[in-house]
Amino acid sequence: MIDVLVAGAGPAGLATALCAVRAGLVVTVVDPRPAPIDKACGEGLMPGAVRALLALGVDPPGFAFRGIGYRDERHQAEALFRSGPGRGVRRTDLQSALLAAVRASGVTVLQRAVTTIDQGADSVTAAGLTARYLVAADGLHSPIAKARDLVRPPAASRAPRWGLRRHFDVPLWSDLVQVHWSAGAEAYVTPVGPGLVGVAILSSERAPFDHHLSNFPELADRLAGADAGPVRGAGPLRRRTRRRVDGRVLLVGDAAGYVDALTGEGIAVSLACARVLIECVATRRPRRYETLWLRESRRYRALTSSLLWASGRPALRRHLVPAAQRVPWAFAGVVGQLAR
């Protein structure tokens, strides 16, 4: 029998499959989408995520970056990582590298959708397959979480946020991830290859990419005339779940809960949670995953929620970058936390 059936062939699902194989479990991955799978993503792997991928035997191609810089129209602050470089990696390259490692490890990968779930005392059946456990790694708007009534309604006090991403062929001007701040949006510029940057814009205003870009004059000037790829969007970004364990169904990655892309920690947290999920399954203590998920995601949730709260208040938002410039040690401390 299959020990772990993973629904979703994105980074969280494929990392879960690799962890399961290393634990001696029989794994199958299903996803209705053909590979490579792309999505709107900042594409910056923090140093901790790079190390976690290497530990799984995955070394995706990309461009190393040394730290993070914040900029607005008049101020700038920069902080370098102390634990090694991060890496800008195209989302399709990351998924392809993980998928190659999964297939090389002997895992069966099927292009198949989960439409119904039948859970019993000792097994769960989905996508025409029966396994001891089903891992839902099916993304921000997880159909499995919705079907299991695990989705909590969004908080009425929070405006939904959306993300847009586009690639530009342009000479690189920095080996940092640059975060440009305007009154109502952030633009993340990540080097992902020689002469190629990804620009991800986050905002609570739903508007075309070029409209948002016009609010960052310095960045817009640098990108003027450059060949640009298609725009991809995602959102609303906030994801609230009631719990991560529902009998033999376990949630991982964005499906398990997501605050925002503001700190760029999504992949690192997903990799850490995939590891502890498989530890719980391998030791036959699936309920313990809820506690470990809360532990592994606590720092991400606290940092991101705090920054999101401050950035959502205009009086505080306009002081974020000046404060980072005036108190560089504090900004370096936050960046150091992100790099873990």
Question: Would you give an account of this structure?
Answer:
The protein has helices at 11-22, 47-55, 91-104, 143-147, 209-213, 217-223, 266-282, 288-311, 314-326, 328-339; strands at residues 2-7, 27-30, 44-45, 63-65, 67-71, 76-80, 86-88, 108-110, 117-119, 124-126, 129-136, 162-169, 177-181, 185-193, 196-203, 227-228, 232-234, 245-246, 249-251. The chain is of the alpha+beta class. It has one domain (2-150, 236-339): FAD/NAD(P)-binding domain, CATH 3.50.50. Strands 1, 2, 8, 9, 10, 11, 18 and 19 form an eight-stranded mixed β-sheet that branches. Strands 5, 6, 12, 13, 14, 15, 16 and 17 form an eight-stranded mixed β-sheet that branches. The chain has a three-stranded antiparallel β-sheet with strand order 3-7-4. Helix 1 (11-22) packs parallel to helix 7. The radius of gyration is 20 Å and the shape is globular. The two termini are 37 Å apart. The mean pLDDT is 93.
What distinguishing features does this structure have?
340 residues; alpha+beta; FAD/NAD(P)-binding domain; 8-stranded mixed beta sheet; globular
